[in-house]
Amino acid sequence: DLATRTTLSATTIERADHVTAGGACALTDEDLQISLAVCYELHYRGFDGVSEDWEWDPALILLRGGLERRHLAALRELVGPLTTTGDSIDRQLAALIAADDGPSLSAFMAKHGTLDQWHEYLTLRSVYHLKEGDPHTFAIPRLSGRAKAAMVEIQADEYGGGTPERMHSELFADLLRHLDLDATYGALWDEAPAASFASVNTMSLFGLHRRWRGAALGHLAAVEMTSSEPSRRYSAGLRRLGFGERVTVFYDEHVEADAVHEQIASVDMCGSLVAEEPDLLPDVLFGAACSLAVDGVAAGQLLGAWEAGRSGLRRERTLAARTRPIPTTDPSEQVERAKALEARRCRAAQAWSSPARPRRASRRISAAGRGRLGALGAENPDRLCVPSQKGLMPDFPHRHSAMVSRPGSISAPSWSTSRKSPRTINGPSR
Q1: DSSP per position, 310-377
Q2: With 70 as the cut, is the pLDDT of residue 417 above it?
Q3: pLDDT value at position 22?
Q4: How far apart are CA 158 and CA 264, in angstroms?
Q5: How far is CA 295 from the centre of its chain?
Q6: Side-chain half-sphere of 31: how many Cα atoms within 13 Å?
Q7: 388 has which bridge partners?
Q8: What is the pLDDT of residue 260?
Q9: Over 90: is that where the pLDDT of 392 sits?
Q10: Number of H helices, E strands in the chain
């Protein structure tokens, strides 16, 4: 209909009603997820041969609304009930992430991923990474004040600080080209399964609806808080196969950058939003939970296919059967690693707070930003032990990234400071 008509046909509406009432899991329903992706793409770059008038066609928006309701119902069922607490929002986000037990795709790719499996993984991720940052950016006009400034700072890095070749969507396109994959926008859609679209569709839904602005910010914060260490693993996996810095640069940038972005996202962005609009706290947590859970569905499907010796793409392609199980981490090993990381960070915090260490005036924090009811919603600094851009932040053992010092003010975009390359935003899936 989009390419050949100016109105939706009765057949299209009937089929959409059937999909909306379908019984399969919405997040893995190929018809529903592809339909949503097509509807949303009209708000991004559109399609060749399709009139731009379709973007806000009332009948199509009505059809999309039915698909969205089923998608949202599946998200709510997937994440289950979420309980808010009296803790600051950054602590609640951290607790949510710490409780996540989804499969680690990055751990597998670091140690065992073959070149064929890398081709499949990148094909799936191309659905998002070739438009990286765009879905969350829709939320910017729906914000104000410090939350808006913080989100703009993160997104400015995502778009390369004004340098086209440093845009992270372009860095990912370079990665595809180095691995002999088609880097054309949308070229690999036919290969990707429903779960890959479900992740991007969730971001688009949150970004395009003002009602879900809190969820959009929570989703972005979860991405920023969980991408540094997985990026390190993905980079290591590519180097294990013999690729150099020209290939790993997309992941290498996420390793350092998201150590800073996680604090901007959780404290400056989400903390300021919740301080200004407390009623949005449940939505922020819902968005973060959706980010973790939907990525877990996609990772589980891909790893499951490889374990069975099948392709994880929509087309059938036989892969060599695996000779070893999907790697898991012993709980005692996790505890020991967490203790060592906590001790190392606390030593760094002590060194940071030493009177002998020169302190930049720009790092001084106003009293309004310190209290539980302050503009940032941060905890009492006496209870914190890890240095961050707002003084000292709480240490959570599950956080893999090191805290990187930065000026206290967020008035200037981060790419305006001197460094070798721009920081980044949304990291790869776990």
Answers
A1: --SSSS----PPPSSPPP---HHHHHHHHHHHHHHHHHHHHHHH-TTS---GGG---GGGTSTTSTT-
A2: no
A3: 78
A4: 14
A5: 9
A6: 13
A7: 391
A8: 80
A9: no
A10: 16, 2
Write the pLDDT tens digit of every residue in 86-109: 999 999 999 999 999 989 999 999
**Which 3 state secondary structure label does DSSP give 257?**
helix
> Do the beta carbons of residue 414 and residue 157 sit within 8 Å?
yes
118 contacts 292 by C-beta, under 8 angstroms: no
C-alpha dist (Å) from residue 95 to 100, 199, 225, 383, 395: 9, 22, 11, 16, 11
| CB 137, CB 157: distance < 8 Å | no
Write down the H helix ranges in 112-144. 115-129, 134-137
Q: Which two tokens stand for residue 290?
A: 């959706």
Q: What DSSP designation does 213 have? A: H
Q: What tens digit of pLDDT does each residue of 186-195 get?
A: 999 999 999 9
- For the segment 351-381, what is each residue's pLDDT rounded down to a tens digit? 334 444 333 233 222 222 322 233 333 333 3
Question: Long-range contacts: 273-276, Cβ < 8 Å, 24+?
Answer: 273/143, 273/147, 273/213, 273/214, 273/217, 274/89, 274/377, 275/373, 275/374, 275/375, 275/376, 275/377, 276/144, 276/145, 276/147
Cα–Cα distance for residue pair 113/119, rounded to 1 Å = 10
Query: Using an 8 Å Cβ cutoff, are 109 and 234 in contact?
Result: yes
Tokens (6 digits) for 32: 């529903």
CB 94 within 8 A of CB 225: yes
Residue 141, pLDDT > 60, answer yes
| CB of 369 closer than 8 Å to CB of 363 | no
Q: How far apart are CA 232 and CA 210, in angstroms?
A: 34
Instruction: Note whether 381 and 390 are within 8 A (CB).
Output: no
| Cα distance between residue 298 and residue 429, in whole Å | 9
